[in-house]
Amino acid sequence: MAYCTPEDVKGELYLPLLAQMQAKLGSGLDAFLGAHIARAEDYADAILSPAFEVPVSPVPRVLTTIAAKLAAFYAMAQYSEREEISRDRRDAAREMLEALVEAGRFPGQVPAAPQEGARLRGGSDLAVFTQERMERW
Q: What pLDDT is attached to residue 86?
């Protein structure tokens, strides 16, 4: 499932540039944006993969926003060769991705409850300390 749609990306584009793209690309605009959506998803997955299972499903709204901002940046950079006009979108998306990785969860997601028996990592060994094993001490 895609993280965003061409319509989401259009909402992030500057209106004069969107009008130019529509005039030049016509019905090919959605395919043009679709290629940039795929790049945005790949980038987001690469950043999120240390903290989350990717691709993320179901897609949280924040990830739709991030993908749309990145895809808009990529599309404007390729179409106009002036990516500085959309750098704010790229920078905002990067900050959002970094915040998600740091938090380890998506907004509105309840942190997982601790399970009985804590998992400790020491070196490369994984040890599980259940209540039964802890009672011996």
A: 80
